[in-house]
Amino acid sequence: MPSDKRGRMKTSEQPGAAHMYLITWNARYAIGIEEIDDHHRHLVALLNTIYDDFVNQAPNRNLANVFAELASYTQYHFSAEESLMRAYGYPGYGLHKVRHDQFVERLETMREQFCNGRRQMSFDLLTFLNTWLLSHILDADADMGRFIASNHRMTA
User: Fold this and answer.
1) CA distance 123 to 53
2) Which CATH class is domain 41-155?
3) Percent of the chain, pLDDT > 70?
4) CA nearest 144: which of 86, 98, 105?
5) DSSP letter string over the chain?
């Protein structure tokens, strides 16, 4: 699904509806690996869609569908990151993978709770996703990006 310049997924426009953004993508989130940066932009777009739908009180099925897409895309993204880490012999791979696994477990638990009628869980999920995603990108993923960039220069 295409996204706009803020990393917000474009959805069907409702006349007069204001879109709410939780995160505006900017260069400080880029880790220097184009594929991973594209993934991060998409994850930000998904998070912004969840936030926008939540704030605008979209039907629960809309939120459930976006949660499902977020869970699926997260698995895809983490798999790509972990493949890169293994390919470059990233020394922080073990801890990074543990963080990924913990995130997936927490996301799935919160998604199940939401789907079982706990709408408040979506606010908890937004807070968790916002905090986790940005800190993970700016810390763990940035470190991985620096390692791969320096390793790539040495082998290029």
Assistant:
1) 11
2) mainly alpha
3) 81
4) 86
5) --B-TTSPBP----TTPPP--S----GGG--S-HHHHHHHHHHHHHHHHHHHHHHTT--HHHHHHHHHHHHHHHHHHHHHHHHHHHHTT-TTHHHHHHHHHHHHHHHHHHHHHHHTT-THHHHHHHHHHHHHHHHHIIIIIHHHHHHHHHHHHHH-
Cα-Cα end-to-end distance for the chain: 34
Q: Which two tokens stand for residue 69?
A: 């897409």
Whether the pLDDT of residue 99 is over 70: the answer is yes
Q: What is the pLDDT of residues 112-156, one digit of tens each?
A: 887 787 666 567 778 888 899 999 999 999 999 999 999 875 444
- pLDDT tens figures, 4-27: 444 444 443 444 455 667 888 999
Q: Which amino acid is at 21?
A: Y
Amino acid identity, residue 27? A
Whole-model pTM over 0.70? yes
CB 43 within 8 A of CB 9: no
CA atoms of 89 and 53, how far apart (whole Å)? 40
* Contact of 58 with 49, CB cutoff 8 Å: no
